[in-house]
Structures are given as structure tokens and as C-alpha cells.
Amino acid sequence: MNVANTQIQMRKGLLEFCVLHIISRGEVYTSDLIEELTQVQMIVVEGTLYPLLNRLKSASLVQYRWVESESGPPRKYYSITEEGKEFLGTLSDTWTSLVNSTIQITSKN
Q1: Which residue, of 3, 34, 43, 106, has the greatest Cβ tally within 10 A?
Q2: From CA 76, how far away is CA 64, in angstroms rounded?
Q3: pLDDT (tens digit, 9 = 90+) per residue, 99-108?
Q4: What does the alpha-carbon distance between residue 36 and residue 93 come to, in Å, rounded to a whole number?
Q5: Rounded-to-integer distance, Cα 25 and Cα 105, Å
Q6: Using CA atoms, how far apart are residues 57 and 54, in angstroms rounded to an integer?
Q7: Angle between helices 3-24 and 30-39 (to 10 degrees)
Q8: What's the rounded Cα separation, in Å, for the pair 80 and 99?
Q9: Which residues, including other chains, have CB under 8 Å from residue 64's CB and lie 6 or more apart?
Q10: Given CA atoms 52, 59, 85, 81 in this order, what sign does their dihedral have?
Q11: pLDDT tens readout for residues 11-65
Q12: Are 76 and 27 contacting, i.e. CB atoms less than 8 angstroms apart?
């Protein structure tokens, strides 16, 4: 079994949760998302973010608006919807439960 593949799958499983959490803090531009996710080693390839954002938009969990840029093409700024906030709340509860369960299991000898 390849440990790198397992690590990648673990990150992918948490990526949606982390992206929604970042967007929930306030309107965000895609490059800012990429920068934060890259800094904490949650994203390896930028190309994984765009399909995820499209899925979140299709599911009405996020929305975006176009903002004109003085130095280039317009930019998409993402924000979370009310439905997205509820979804994130459920994911947060699930995360807390998973962390607690994992700590209980891994703390035993």
C-alpha cells in the first residue's frame, strides 16, 4: 500500500470542508483560496479546486459574483449561501465527532 496515495485521499476528503470554512469567513477570490490551502498543504494541484467550486455552486452551497479588475479580466469572488452555512454546520459536527473518535482510538496502546 502506498502511504502517499492514502495521504492524498485523506486531504481530498477534507478539502470540501476546508474550502467551505474559508469561504464562510467572507467573500474570497480563488487565488486566495489556493494560497491558504497550499500554505497548509491541503491542496497539491490547483486543478482540483475549480471542479470542487463548481460542484459547490451547483449544489447551491456557494455563490459568486464578478468584480471588474483594473489590471486584467474580471474576478470571481465566492461567498457562502444560507444553505451552505447549514451544510457547513453539519460538516463541523461530523468533524468534531470524527476527531473525538480518532483520538479515543489512537490514544489506546
Answers
A1: 43
A2: 6
A3: 999 999 999 9
A4: 23
A5: 32
A6: 5
A7: 130
A8: 24
A9: 57, 76, 77, 78, 79
A10: positive
A11: 888 999 999 999 999 999 998 999 999 999 887 677 889 999 999 999 999 999 9
A12: no
Confidence (pTM): 0.88
Which residue type occupies 13?
A: G
| DSSP-derived secondary structure for the chain | --HHHHHHHHHHHHHHHHHHHHHHTS-EEHHHHHHHHHHTT--S-GGGHHHHHHHHHHTTSEEEEEE--TTSS-EEEEEE-HHHHHHHHHHHHHHHHHHHHHHHHHT--
Grid cell 486566495 is found at: 32
Return d(Cα 33, Cα 30) in angstroms, integer: 5
